[in-house]
Amino acid sequence: MNAHMLGMAACMLMTAGSAVAQQGDPSAALDKRSICIGCHGIPGYRTAYPAVYPVPKLGGQHAAYIVRALQAYRGGERNHPSMRAIAQSLTDQDMADLAAYYAMPREGAK
Ligand code: HEC
After folding, report:
1. What span, in angstroms and rounded, lies between the C-alpha atoms of 96 and 70?
2. For residue 43, which of 3, 7, 17, 88 sits 20 to 30 Å off, Cα-Cα?
3. pLDDT digits (tens, 9 = 90+) for 16-43
4. Tens digit of pLDDT for each residue in 96-109?
């Protein structure tokens, strides 16, 4: 095996490792969701900035969709100022945990 192939193998291992690390843990999100509840926990809530704006409901959405949305805010593909600032403060693990938490079916999901 030459150095190039070794490099590729190491790269594939790292990719597999990070996929495992990003398994969301809903119980870990209990500490992290306090920041989200201020907006997403209030049924029918609207933010006043940059315009009066409805806040989407997170409870019951698919985990993969929630992670994708947070990454899009962090990367700038989605451009809502408050969500961008929040997503930039989250690690990949935070996103996975929060997504797993919000994707869980619950009574009166918030
Ligand atoms: C300041 C109020 C506020 C806070 C705090 C907040 N959000 Fe949001 N969030 C919004 C608004 C408003 C939108 C809709 C923005 C848009 O249309 O792009 C949104 C959108 C989202 C979306 C996309 C939903 C969809 O249906 O596309 C996700 C996912 C999300 N927020 C997750 C979170 C998480 C997780 C937290 C806590 C770490 C959080 N938000 C904290 C106001 C907030």
Report:
1. 10
2. 88
3. 444 444 789 999 999 899 989 888 877 7
4. 999 999 998 765 44
Substitution candidate for ligand 1 out of 53, 62, 83 with most atoms within 8 A of CB? 83
Separation of CA 15 and ligand 1 centre (Å): 28
Residue 6's SS3 state is: helix
Atom of ligand 1 nearest to the CA of 89: 38
pLDDT at 91 over 60: yes
Using CA positions, which residue lies closest to atom 41 of ligand 1? 36
Domain borders along the chain are 24-103
Q: Which residues pair with 47 in a beta bridge?
A: 53
Provide the residue type at 22 as one letter: Q
